[in-house]
């Protein structure tokens, strides 16, 4: 009987690892796909990411009552993510077609974001299972096991990246629509 339970446990762990690897591969593929820039989707992305950033910063401000450096790490991560978002916008390939504006995000930055997510997952697992990382007596085991400061910085960096990138896409869509309407007005005035 114990052999069956051990085999089942190994199977479940391998299946979980496979699902995690598959989700990372799908995340990378979706992050590098060519897509049409639509105004309503760009606006929705800005609103949702802004809400996420405000909620996350509020949570880390509350968390800073217990872990004093949490909010500072969140601001630092958000700043680095914002800079990375600007780099991502500069590296994005934009195509103006008769059907609309299309864009393809940078493969290197999509890989970097995917690796940041995977690295944070692996680091959290390692901290939770490594015997040398036991939390101090006055610290809750979950806080000590999660590597809170690094978790907050990486999460804030991802939110900052997506916030700046979504704002940039929204501004680019608005500029493209403005140019199209100006060109259409010029064509009508020539006739």
Architecture overview:
The protein has 191 residues and is mainly alpha-helical. It has one domain (32-190). It has helices at 2-31, 39-63, 70-91, 107-129, 141-146, 148-190; strands at residues 35-36, 93-97, 100-104. Strands 1-3-2 form a three-stranded antiparallel β-sheet, with no helix packed on it. Strand 2 (93-97) and strand 3 (100-104) form a beta hairpin. Helix 2 (39-63) runs antiparallel to helix 3 (70-91), helix 2 packs antiparallel against helix 6 (148-190) and helix 3 (70-91) runs parallel beside helix 6 (148-190). The longest helix has 43 residues, at 148-190. The N and C termini lie far apart (86 Å).
| Oligomeric status | single chain
Would you report the number of β strands? 3
Measured as a percent range, the helix fraction is over 70%
User: Could you say which overall geometry the principal axes of the C-alpha atoms support?
Assistant: extended
* Number of individual domains: 1
Largest sheet: 3 strands, antiparallel
Brief synopsis:
This protein is mainly alpha-helical and 191 residues long.
What would the keywords be for this entry?
6 helices, mainly alpha, 78% helix, 191 residues
List the helices and strands and how they pair.
Blueprint: H1 2-31, E1 35-36, H2 39-63, H3 70-91, E2 93-97, E3 100-104, H4 107-129, H5 141-146, H6 148-190
Antiparallel strand pairs: 1-3, 2-3
Helix pairs in contact: 1-4, 2-3, 2-6, 3-6, 4-6
């Amino acid at each position: 009987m114990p052999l069956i339970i051990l085999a089942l446990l190994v199977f479940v762990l391998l299946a979980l690892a496979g699902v995690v690897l598959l989700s990372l591969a799908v995340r990378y593929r979706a992050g590098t796909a060519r897509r049409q820039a639509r105004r309503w989707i760009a606006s929705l992305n800005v609103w949702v990411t802004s809400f996420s950033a405000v909620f996350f910063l509020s949570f880390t401000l509350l968390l800073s009552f217990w872990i004093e450096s949490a909010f500072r790490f969140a601001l630092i991560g958000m700043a680095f993510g914002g800079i990375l978002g600007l780099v991502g916008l500069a590296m994005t390939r934009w195509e103006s077609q008769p059907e609309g504006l299309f864009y393809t995000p940078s493969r290197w930055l999509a890989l970097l974001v995917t690796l940041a997510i995977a690295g944070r997952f692996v680091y959290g697992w390692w901290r939770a299972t490594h015997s040398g990382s036991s939390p101090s007596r006055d610290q809750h085991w979950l806080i000590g096991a999660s590597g809170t400061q690094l978790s907050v910085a990486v999460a804030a960096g991802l939110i900052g990246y997506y916030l700046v990138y979504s704002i940039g896409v929204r501004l680019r869509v608005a500029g493209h629509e403005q140019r199209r309407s100006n060109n259409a007005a010029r064509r009508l005035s020539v006739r």
